[in-house]
Structures are given as C-alpha cells and as structure tokens.
Design goal:
Elements: H1 5-10, H2 19-48, H3 56-92, H4 107-112, H5 120-134
C-alpha cells in the first residue's frame, strides 16, 4: 500500500523520517528528476530543429525565445543539482533535518519543497541576514 500525503502527515512525530517516509520522498524526488530531465532533452531537441530565419525581426524573436528557454533550463539544471543532493542525503539518512540546527525540517515543508535543507526558522534567519548585509 502506497503512502499518500495525507497518511504521511497523519504519522506520529516519533516516526519522522522512517523508512516509509524516506521511500516516499525518494520516489517524489526521482519523479521530479525524471520530469526535469525530459524537459532538458526536449529543449536540446527543440534547439537543434530550429530553422534559419531570414527576417531580422523574426530572428530576434527566435533568439529571445531561445534566451528565455535557456534561462529556464539553467534554473532547472540548478534544481536537478539540488534534487541529486537531496537523494544523497536520503542515502546518508540526513534527509529531513536542518543543516544548521539539526532539527527536523517538517513534513509539510518537505512536501512543499522536497529539496529543502533548512527549517522554516533557519531559512527566515538566513534571509534576514542576507537582506541585512545586501544593503
């Protein structure tokens, strides 16, 4: 019987990051990874198929579309790296725990962002510090 989000959230805190939960997040991360990899492959294929456009305005439009697509793929490439890091943390049994405090990140946060490495509090603290020193 597969673990659903509702069943996952209903589990007691004492079972945090047990084998079933780790398997649930491993499957979710692998599905995300496969989906992103398909998009990357589609982009590569799409860019290969582009025809030469003679009209300068049309060529500029095509180049702008390529630039936008490449920026999107760059963000996805970074997400792939985070997914791989999360999968490695699952192997190391560190997944689900804050890098700074060692406290549980929480199931709700991990459902929303499976690649999270910080608890909500640690993330908020980090963002405040970045904002303070960014000025």
């Amino acid at each position: 019987m597969a673990l659903t989000e509702a069943k996952l959230l209903a589990m007691p805190e004492s079972e945090y990051m047990n084998e079933k939960q780790l398997a649930f997040f491993r499957d979710r991360l692998l599905a995300m990874r496969n989906e992103l990899q398909l998009k990357v492959d589609e982009t590569v294929e799409h860019m290969r198929e582009q025809e030469a456009v003679a009209d300068p305005a049309d060529r500029a439009t095509v180049e702008e579309e390529h630039a936008l697509e490449l920026r999107t793929r760059d963000r996805e490439r970074k997400l792939l790296k985070k997914i791989d890091q999360a999968l490695e943390r699952i192997k190391q049994e560190d997944y689900g725990y804050c890098e700074e405090t060692g406290e549980p990140i929480g199931l709700a946060r991990l459902l929303a962002r499976p690649t999270a490495t910080l608890s909500v509090e640690a993330q908020a603290r980090r963002e405040r510090m970045q904002k303070m020193y960014a000025d």
